[in-house]
Amino acid sequence: MAIPYPHFIASEKAAMEAGLLSPSSSQPSLILTQDDLKKIAAYKAVEYVESGMVLGLGTGSTAKHAVARIGELIQQGKLKNIIGIPTSKMTHEQALSVGIPLSDLDSYPVVDLAIDGADEVDPYLNLVKGRGGSLLREKMVEGACKKFVVIVDESKLVNHIGGSGLAVPVEVIQFCWKFTASKLQNLFEESGCEAKLRTFGEKKEPFVTDNKNYIIDLYFKKSIGDLKVASDAILNLAGVVEHGMFLDMATTVIIAGELGLTVKNK
Ligand SMILES: O=C[C@H](O)[C@H](O)[C@H](O)COP(=O)(O)O
Asked: What PANTHER family does UniProt report for this protein, alphabetically (predicted)?
Protein backbone atom coordinates (compact mmCIF):
# COMPACT_ATOMS: atom_id res chain seq x y z
CA MET A 1 0.00 0.00 0.00
CA ALA A 2 1.56 3.31 -1.02
CA ILE A 3 0.35 6.32 0.91
CA PRO A 4 0.87 9.72 -0.72
CA TYR A 5 2.56 11.61 2.03
CA PRO A 6 3.51 15.14 1.12
CA HIS A 7 3.65 16.70 4.60
CA PHE A 8 6.03 15.11 7.00
CA ILE A 9 5.48 16.69 10.39
CA ALA A 10 6.41 15.16 13.74
CA SER A 11 8.40 12.22 12.50
CA GLU A 12 11.04 13.98 10.42
CA LYS A 13 13.87 12.94 12.76
CA ALA A 14 12.68 9.33 12.83
CA ALA A 15 12.31 9.30 9.03
CA MET A 16 15.86 10.57 8.65
CA GLU A 17 17.20 7.93 11.01
CA ALA A 18 15.19 5.30 9.16
CA GLY A 19 17.00 6.40 6.00
CA LEU A 20 13.80 7.59 4.34
CA LEU A 21 14.67 11.27 4.23
CA SER A 22 17.95 12.98 3.48
CA PRO A 23 19.08 15.61 6.03
CA SER A 24 19.69 18.06 3.18
CA SER A 25 16.15 18.01 1.73
CA SER A 26 14.41 21.20 2.81
CA GLN A 27 10.98 20.29 1.40
CA PRO A 28 10.38 16.68 2.34
CA SER A 29 8.07 15.04 -0.16
CA LEU A 30 7.80 11.33 0.15
CA ILE A 31 5.67 8.47 -1.01
CA LEU A 32 5.69 6.11 1.94
CA THR A 33 4.66 2.49 1.92
CA GLN A 34 2.93 0.85 4.86
CA ASP A 35 6.27 -0.80 5.64
CA ASP A 36 7.96 2.63 5.75
CA LEU A 37 5.40 3.73 8.35
CA LYS A 38 6.12 0.62 10.41
CA LYS A 39 9.84 1.35 10.22
CA ILE A 40 9.39 4.97 11.28
CA ALA A 41 7.30 3.94 14.32
CA ALA A 42 9.88 1.28 15.19
CA TYR A 43 12.84 3.67 14.98
CA LYS A 44 11.00 6.16 17.18
CA ALA A 45 10.39 3.45 19.80
CA VAL A 46 14.07 2.54 19.85
CA GLU A 47 14.77 6.08 21.10
CA TYR A 48 13.37 4.80 24.44
CA VAL A 49 16.14 2.19 24.68
CA GLU A 50 19.09 2.90 26.97
CA SER A 51 22.32 1.02 27.58
CA GLY A 52 22.07 -1.63 30.30
CA MET A 53 18.39 -2.39 29.66
CA VAL A 54 16.72 -5.79 29.59
CA LEU A 55 14.56 -5.56 26.48
CA GLY A 56 11.49 -7.50 25.39
CA LEU A 57 11.84 -8.03 21.64
CA GLY A 58 8.51 -8.26 19.84
CA THR A 59 7.50 -10.30 16.82
CA GLY A 60 6.10 -9.37 13.41
CA SER A 61 6.66 -7.13 10.43
CA THR A 62 6.75 -3.96 12.57
CA ALA A 63 8.78 -5.26 15.51
CA LYS A 64 11.43 -6.67 13.17
CA HIS A 65 12.44 -3.08 12.27
CA ALA A 66 13.00 -2.31 15.98
CA VAL A 67 15.08 -5.46 16.44
CA ALA A 68 17.21 -4.56 13.41
CA ARG A 69 17.71 -1.00 14.68
CA ILE A 70 18.71 -2.16 18.18
CA GLY A 71 21.26 -4.51 16.60
CA GLU A 72 22.60 -1.66 14.46
CA LEU A 73 23.03 0.64 17.50
CA ILE A 74 24.81 -2.15 19.41
CA GLN A 75 27.17 -2.68 16.46
CA GLN A 76 27.85 1.07 16.34
CA GLY A 77 28.69 1.04 20.06
CA LYS A 78 25.80 3.42 20.80
CA LEU A 79 23.99 0.87 22.98
CA LYS A 80 25.91 -1.27 25.46
CA ASN A 81 25.09 -4.13 27.85
CA ILE A 82 21.69 -4.85 26.30
CA ILE A 83 19.97 -8.15 27.10
CA GLY A 84 17.17 -9.11 24.71
CA ILE A 85 14.28 -11.39 25.66
CA PRO A 86 12.72 -12.59 22.37
CA THR A 87 8.99 -13.29 22.11
CA SER A 88 9.23 -15.97 19.40
CA LYS A 89 11.63 -18.34 17.73
CA MET A 90 11.63 -16.07 14.69
CA THR A 91 12.66 -13.03 16.72
CA HIS A 92 15.26 -15.15 18.53
CA GLU A 93 16.84 -15.95 15.15
CA GLN A 94 16.72 -12.36 13.93
CA ALA A 95 18.13 -10.95 17.18
CA LEU A 96 21.04 -13.39 17.09
CA SER A 97 21.72 -12.49 13.47
CA VAL A 98 22.01 -8.78 14.30
CA GLY A 99 24.18 -9.35 17.38
CA ILE A 100 21.79 -8.77 20.29
CA PRO A 101 22.81 -10.81 23.37
CA LEU A 102 19.81 -12.91 24.45
CA SER A 103 18.43 -14.43 27.61
CA ASP A 104 15.01 -15.37 29.01
CA LEU A 105 12.48 -14.61 31.75
CA ASP A 106 13.90 -17.35 33.99
CA SER A 107 17.15 -15.38 34.25
CA TYR A 108 15.60 -11.89 33.93
CA PRO A 109 12.08 -11.92 35.43
CA VAL A 110 11.83 -8.12 35.23
CA VAL A 111 12.05 -6.55 31.78
CA ASP A 112 12.81 -2.80 31.55
CA LEU A 113 11.14 -2.15 28.22
CA ALA A 114 9.38 -4.16 25.53
CA ILE A 115 8.75 -2.98 21.98
CA ASP A 116 6.20 -4.82 19.84
CA GLY A 117 3.60 -4.38 17.12
CA ALA A 118 -0.13 -5.04 17.40
CA ASP A 119 -3.01 -6.07 15.18
CA GLU A 120 -5.54 -3.69 16.72
CA VAL A 121 -5.30 -0.75 19.12
CA ASP A 122 -8.43 0.77 20.71
CA PRO A 123 -8.73 4.33 22.13
CA TYR A 124 -7.85 3.04 25.64
CA LEU A 125 -4.66 1.37 24.32
CA ASN A 126 -6.11 -2.13 24.64
CA LEU A 127 -4.69 -4.39 21.96
CA VAL A 128 -5.36 -7.44 19.86
CA LYS A 129 -2.16 -9.37 19.18
CA GLY A 130 -1.28 -12.80 17.87
CA ARG A 131 -2.32 -12.79 14.23
CA GLY A 132 1.29 -13.89 13.66
CA GLY A 133 0.82 -16.63 16.25
CA SER A 134 3.18 -15.35 18.97
CA LEU A 135 0.67 -14.12 21.54
CA LEU A 136 1.61 -16.44 24.42
CA ARG A 137 5.31 -15.60 24.65
CA GLU A 138 4.49 -11.96 23.91
CA LYS A 139 2.02 -11.84 26.79
CA MET A 140 4.52 -13.44 29.16
CA VAL A 141 7.36 -11.08 28.24
CA GLU A 142 5.24 -7.93 27.92
CA GLY A 143 3.41 -8.75 31.14
CA ALA A 144 6.79 -8.75 32.89
CA CYS A 145 7.97 -5.37 31.63
CA LYS A 146 8.01 -1.96 33.33
CA LYS A 147 7.29 -0.14 30.07
CA PHE A 148 5.57 -1.58 27.00
CA VAL A 149 5.86 0.49 23.83
CA VAL A 150 3.56 -0.58 20.99
CA ILE A 151 4.39 0.40 17.42
CA VAL A 152 1.78 0.49 14.67
CA ASP A 153 0.84 2.17 11.43
CA GLU A 154 -2.52 3.89 11.56
CA SER A 155 -4.34 1.01 9.84
CA LYS A 156 -4.29 -0.79 13.21
CA LEU A 157 -6.50 1.75 15.01
CA VAL A 158 -10.03 0.55 15.86
CA ASN A 159 -12.90 1.88 17.95
CA HIS A 160 -13.58 -1.47 19.62
CA ILE A 161 -11.41 -4.55 20.02
CA GLY A 162 -12.74 -7.27 17.72
CA GLY A 163 -14.79 -4.61 15.96
CA SER A 164 -12.72 -4.80 12.78
CA GLY A 165 -14.30 -8.18 11.99
CA LEU A 166 -10.79 -9.67 11.89
CA ALA A 167 -9.46 -12.42 14.12
CA VAL A 168 -9.11 -12.34 17.89
CA PRO A 169 -6.68 -15.26 18.33
CA VAL A 170 -6.86 -17.79 21.15
CA GLU A 171 -4.02 -20.29 21.74
CA VAL A 172 -5.40 -23.72 22.72
CA ILE A 173 -3.86 -27.11 23.35
CA GLN A 174 -4.14 -29.56 20.46
CA PHE A 175 -6.08 -32.14 22.50
CA CYS A 176 -9.75 -32.02 21.44
CA TRP A 177 -9.38 -28.58 19.87
CA LYS A 178 -12.82 -28.89 18.20
CA PHE A 179 -14.39 -29.21 21.64
CA THR A 180 -12.55 -26.08 22.83
CA ALA A 181 -13.44 -24.19 19.64
CA SER A 182 -17.12 -24.96 20.08
CA LYS A 183 -16.98 -23.89 23.77
CA LEU A 184 -15.37 -20.61 22.67
CA GLN A 185 -17.99 -20.01 19.99
CA ASN A 186 -20.82 -20.74 22.45
CA LEU A 187 -19.40 -18.25 24.95
CA PHE A 188 -19.98 -15.45 22.45
CA GLU A 189 -23.12 -16.66 20.69
CA GLU A 190 -24.84 -13.30 21.24
CA SER A 191 -21.91 -11.50 19.59
CA GLY A 192 -22.29 -13.61 16.43
CA CYS A 193 -18.95 -15.27 17.07
CA GLU A 194 -17.43 -17.76 14.65
CA ALA A 195 -14.48 -19.84 15.91
CA LYS A 196 -12.11 -21.18 13.25
CA LEU A 197 -8.96 -23.27 13.51
CA ARG A 198 -6.02 -21.34 12.00
CA THR A 199 -4.50 -23.23 9.09
CA PHE A 200 -1.76 -22.56 6.58
CA GLY A 201 -0.75 -23.66 3.08
CA GLU A 202 -2.72 -25.28 0.29
CA LYS A 203 -3.28 -28.42 2.35
CA LYS A 204 -4.76 -26.30 5.13
CA GLU A 205 -2.57 -27.87 7.80
CA PRO A 206 -3.21 -26.60 11.33
CA PHE A 207 -0.90 -23.72 12.24
CA VAL A 208 1.27 -24.83 15.17
CA THR A 209 2.67 -22.20 17.54
CA ASP A 210 6.21 -22.08 18.99
CA ASN A 211 4.68 -23.79 22.03
CA LYS A 212 3.24 -26.65 19.92
CA ASN A 213 -0.33 -25.44 20.38
CA TYR A 214 -3.07 -24.52 17.90
CA ILE A 215 -4.74 -21.16 17.35
CA ILE A 216 -8.51 -20.72 17.25
CA ASP A 217 -9.40 -17.39 15.63
CA LEU A 218 -12.60 -15.76 16.88
CA TYR A 219 -14.53 -13.56 14.45
CA PHE A 220 -17.21 -11.30 15.90
CA LYS A 221 -20.20 -9.90 14.00
CA LYS A 222 -21.27 -7.75 16.97
CA SER A 223 -19.53 -6.19 19.97
CA ILE A 224 -17.71 -8.54 22.34
CA GLY A 225 -19.10 -6.52 25.24
CA ASP A 226 -17.05 -5.92 28.38
CA LEU A 227 -13.48 -6.90 27.49
CA LYS A 228 -12.45 -7.96 31.01
CA VAL A 229 -15.53 -10.21 31.29
CA ALA A 230 -14.74 -11.70 27.86
CA SER A 231 -11.09 -12.22 28.82
CA ASP A 232 -11.97 -13.99 32.08
CA ALA A 233 -14.53 -16.20 30.34
CA ILE A 234 -12.02 -17.31 27.69
CA LEU A 235 -9.25 -17.98 30.22
CA ASN A 236 -11.67 -19.95 32.38
CA LEU A 237 -12.11 -22.63 29.70
CA ALA A 238 -9.97 -25.74 30.16
CA GLY A 239 -8.00 -26.23 26.96
CA VAL A 240 -7.33 -22.52 26.49
CA VAL A 241 -3.73 -21.45 27.07
CA GLU A 242 -3.98 -17.68 26.40
CA HIS A 243 -5.80 -15.17 24.24
CA GLY A 244 -4.64 -12.25 22.14
CA MET A 245 -6.46 -9.43 23.94
CA PHE A 246 -3.79 -7.39 25.74
CA LEU A 247 -5.89 -5.32 28.12
CA ASP A 248 -4.37 -2.43 30.03
CA MET A 249 -0.82 -3.55 29.23
CA ALA A 250 0.55 -0.97 26.77
CA THR A 251 2.10 2.07 28.44
CA THR A 252 2.83 3.89 25.17
CA VAL A 253 1.55 3.49 21.62
CA ILE A 254 3.46 5.06 18.72
CA ILE A 255 1.32 5.46 15.61
CA ALA A 256 2.85 6.33 12.24
CA GLY A 257 0.34 7.77 9.81
CA GLU A 258 -0.55 10.37 7.29
CA LEU A 259 0.13 13.27 9.63
CA GLY A 260 3.38 11.94 11.03
CA LEU A 261 3.92 10.28 14.38
CA THR A 262 1.47 10.31 17.25
CA VAL A 263 2.62 9.13 20.67
CA LYS A 264 -0.12 8.12 23.13
CA ASN A 265 0.76 7.47 26.75
CA LYS A 266 -1.30 5.66 29.33
O1 LIG B 1 1.72 -12.77 16.72
C2 LIG B 1 2.12 -11.73 16.24
C3 LIG B 1 2.25 -10.48 16.97
O4 LIG B 1 1.29 -10.28 17.97
C5 LIG B 1 2.45 -9.25 16.12
O6 LIG B 1 3.06 -8.29 16.92
C7 LIG B 1 1.17 -8.67 15.56
O8 LIG B 1 0.50 -9.68 14.83
C9 LIG B 1 1.43 -7.47 14.66
O10 LIG B 1 2.20 -7.89 13.58
P11 LIG B 1 2.61 -6.93 12.38
O12 LIG B 1 3.52 -5.90 12.94
O13 LIG B 1 3.29 -7.86 11.40
O14 LIG B 1 1.34 -6.37 11.83
From this structure: RIBOSE-5-PHOSPHATE ISOMERASE 2-RELATED (PTHR43748:SF2), RIBOSE-5-PHOSPHATE ISOMERASE 3, CHLOROPLASTIC-RELATED (PTHR43748)
Catalytic-residue membership of 12: no
Asked if 239 and 252 sit in the same domain, the reply is: no
Number of structural domains the chain divides into = 2
User: CB within 6 Å of ligand 1 — which residues?
Assistant: 58-63, 116-119, 129-135, 138
Tell whether 101 and 209 lie within a shared domain: no
Beginning with the edge strand found earlier in the chain, give each strand of the sheet holding 120-121 in spatial order.
Answer: 120-121, 127-128, 245-246
Atom 12 in ligand 1: residue holding the nearest Cα? 62
Give me the domain span that covers residue 130.
2-155+248-257
Q: Quick one: 54 and 110 in the same domain?
A: yes
Tally of residues, the chain: 266
205 shares its domain with 134: no
Checking ipTM against 0.95, whether it exceeds it is: yes
Q: How far apart are CA 213 and CA 174, in angstroms?
A: 6
Whether residue 64 is found in the same domain as residue 189: no
Specify the residue with its C-alpha closest to ligand 1, atom 5.
60
The model's pTM: 0.92
Q: What is the pLDDT of residues 68-77, one digit of tens each?
A: 999 999 999 9
Dist. CA 162–CA 244, nearest whole Å: 10
Query: What's the half-sphere exposure (Cβ side, CA atoms, 13 Å) at 246?
Result: 30
Ligand 1 atom at minimum distance from 156 CA: 14
Give me the catalytic one of 17, 120, 138, 142: 138
